[in-house]
Amino acid sequence: MSCFPVDFFIYVYMMKKVTCENKMIKGSESALEQKRRNGKRRFYIMSKRRAAFLTLGCKVNQYETDAMEEILEKNGYDIVSFKETADVYIINTCSVTNMADRKSRQMIHRAKKNNPDAVIVAAGCYVQAAEKEMAEKNMADILVGNNKKKDIAQILEEYFAVKEEEQKVPLVSEVIDINHTKEYEDLTIHKVNEHTRAYIKIQDGCNQFCSYCIIPYTRGRIRSKNPEEVIEEVKNLAAQGYKEIVLTGIHLSSYGKDLGDITLLDVIQRIQQIEDIERIRLGSLEPRIITEQFVKELRACDKVCPHFHLSLQSGCDETLKRMNRKYTTEEYETALNVLRTYYEHPALTTDVIAGFVGETEEEFEKTRAYLEKINLYEMHIFKYSVREGTRAQKMSSHVPEQVKTERSDVLLAMAKRHKSEFEKWYVGRKEKVLLEEIVEKNGKKYFQGYTAHYVKVAVELSENDTKLRQNEVIVVDIQGFIDENLLYGKVSIEF
Predict the structure, then answer these.
(1) What is the DSSP string of 335-346?
(2) First to last CA, the chain
(3) DSSP, residue by residue, 206-251
(4) Measured between alpha carbons, how far is 266 from 458 in angstroms, rounded to an integer?
(5) Is the separation of the CB atoms in 245 and 200 below 8 Å?
(6) From first to last of its 495 residues, what are the pLDDT tens digits of the chain?
(7) Fewest CB within 10 A of the end CB: N or C in the chain?
(8) Smallest Cα–Cα separation from 128: which of 88, 90, 171, 93?
(9) Which domains are assigned to the chain?
(10) Are strands 142-144 and 9-14 parallel, antiparallel or unpaired?
């Protein structure tokens, strides 16, 4: 497709005969399918279209949204805020919990309210999990599953081609059988919405099949991005001035297992050599990857941030077994101790599920005591959410919602206390801070950023301060707290 910016855009393209997995939910053969089969050349005259995106869920989803935005921009679309009137609304959905499902439906409905005449595209994990239901209820005009987001421009233009000639366009579903593909979806970003750090998706899919988790069914098996493409993407972002790279994936620790002898450590070591990158931050890791040999080699990469998210889910071995987690609490604690041996005061964070199926009061107490003992920086606490199609759904002895809430509240209170204790350690110390944004607190302006440990720190701004700039790394003498969630300090003379 070529676009010529005159008083309007002239879209000239050919619908070639294609063999694809796409299907139209309604009708025996759609007009879109007929155009593909007949190979007709079509001419369209239209004003520049406006597209709005909304992302739900994880950083992998955000990366994929950024990539889709780039694709549409290259194809002549204006990208606008989701709150604005747009011709196309694309909701990148999440399905990790029941609440995520509900939020996905709500945002689709909101898009329809924003502009009833707009084309509504639902993409991502909720679509992958609930394609049939969404199609039956006509929730959106176009459904795009995982591994089809790279085709968003083509999908839209084919849809508009049909709409140009027909008043009513049947629902389009572009959802593949994700569990039987080995293809890594070729998405790359050249810019990111965040100004200081760039999240890069290098891995997709999961082979773990934890009993509570729907993700292997919505994301498929493990697939890895070619390491050369990863390095090229990082170099491009470094050239644009980004100093921090965050490596993400659905199961990041599995990176490279489908590529032969390549490992996550190999990619980290290569990024370490890229001169303009100052920080490498890792997404969620499997506890079993944390061996002494792995951490020893990781420690040699001084750009790697001492911030490690090791998914736990429960502090009780019996519960972990029902969850089909493949480690024990002893193995998890050993991993923490290795990290604490090689790094000074590392920021260790985790996820915990409260009220999993069959969790007794005794099991919950084991989890509570264990979490108190290992004393992590941050704990993300979730109440167990039933996911249709998982093994846990079929288990007996589901915990009442009220009990889940009570247990969650206990763990949330502990998490808040541990976080505060961890951050107090920094008062009186010098730390490097990557400046991100100006905020106002108690009538004063501060430049706010994060340490390598991902601890938020603010520096007060004077009226004529011109030295401090976004995306600069400075040394800060940390003096105390502005509030319970924000440390503050003064620029060190070392800066």
Answers:
(1) HHHHHHHHSSS-
(2) 50
(3) -----TT--HHHHH-S-EE--HHHHHHHHHHHHHTT--EEEEEETT
(4) 35
(5) yes
(6) 334 333 333 232 333 333 333 333 333 344 444 444 444 434 343 458 999 999 999 999 999 999 999 999 999 999 999 999 999 999 999 999 999 999 999 999 999 999 999 999 999 999 999 999 999 999 999 999 999 999 999 999 999 999 888 777 888 999 988 888 888 998 999 877 767 889 999 999 999 999 999 999 999 999 999 999 999 999 999 999 999 999 999 999 999 999 999 999 999 999 999 999 999 999 999 999 999 999 999 999 999 999 999 999 999 999 999 999 999 999 999 999 999 999 999 999 999 999 999 999 999 999 999 999 999 999 999 999 999 999 999 999 999 999 999 999 999 999 999 999 999 999 999 999 999 999 999 889 999 999 999 999 999 887 666 678 888 999 999 999 998 889 999 998 765
(7) N
(8) 93
(9) 47-157+167-176 (3.40.50.12160), 197-424 (3.80.30.20), 430-491 (2.40.50)
(10) unpaired
Please tell me the pTM assigned to this model: 0.86
- Helix ranges (H only) for 241-360 are 264-272, 292-299, 317-323, 329-342
Ordered DSSP codes for 97-122: SHHHHHHHHHHHHHHHHH-TTSEEEE
Contacts 24+ apart (CB under 8 A), 99-104: 99/385, 100/56, 100/57, 100/126, 101/126, 101/129, 101/130, 103/56, 104/56
Nearest-CA neighbor of 482 among 412, 423, 422? 423
Both tokens assigned to 122 = 């639902």
